[in-house]
Design brief:
By secondary structure, this protein is α/β, with parallel strands linked by helices. It has one domain (about 5-50, about 70-120): Roll (2,3-Dihydroxybiphenyl 1,2-Dioxygenase, domain 1). It is about 20% helix and about 40% strand. The protein has two helices and eight strands. The protein has a four-stranded mixed sheet, covered by helices on one side. The chain starts with a strand and ends with a strand.
Length: about 120
């Protein structure tokens, strides 16, 4: 249902490197790119995560309550993606762990302060 999520950045080159490495670790790569945005996905019909310079020319700011959730297929991949984010300079927002019966997630922020999580839904 979700086509893509766009995150504004004030650190375009650094953010591009962060997401190249972070999303590359789960098999996603750049699939669309222009002067002011980059989109990563696992395929043309899969949801994408994008970074951009804000269209209005103002500084990018973090939306309070906004979060991007990245679905992976195991708890080990949640742990690995969370660890990769911190290794790349992201910050902790909640270590990986069981959040409810079938929901396992780890929370972090990217270099601009955007909040993301990696999650696995299953047993």
């Amino acid at each position: 249902m979700i086509g893509y999520v766009m995150l504004g950045t004030n650190k375009y080159d650094e953010a591009a490197k962060f997401y190249d490495e972070l999303l590359g670790s789960i098999g996603a790569g750049r699939f669309m790119e222009a002067e002011n945005f980059i989109a990563w996905s696992t395929g043309p019909s899969a949801a994408a995560l994008c970074i951009c310079h804000p269209y209005d020319g103002n500084a990018a700011t973090v939306g309070n309550g906004v979060m991007v959730a990245v679905n992976v297929d195991s708890r080990d991949k949640v742990d690995a993606l969370y660890a990769k984010a911190l290794e790349l300079g992201g910050t902790d927002e909640g270590a990986p762990g069981q959040r409810s019966d079938n929901f396992y997630a780890g929370y972090f922020r990217d270099l601009d302060g955007n909040k993301l999580n990696a999650f696995y839904f299953g047993e």
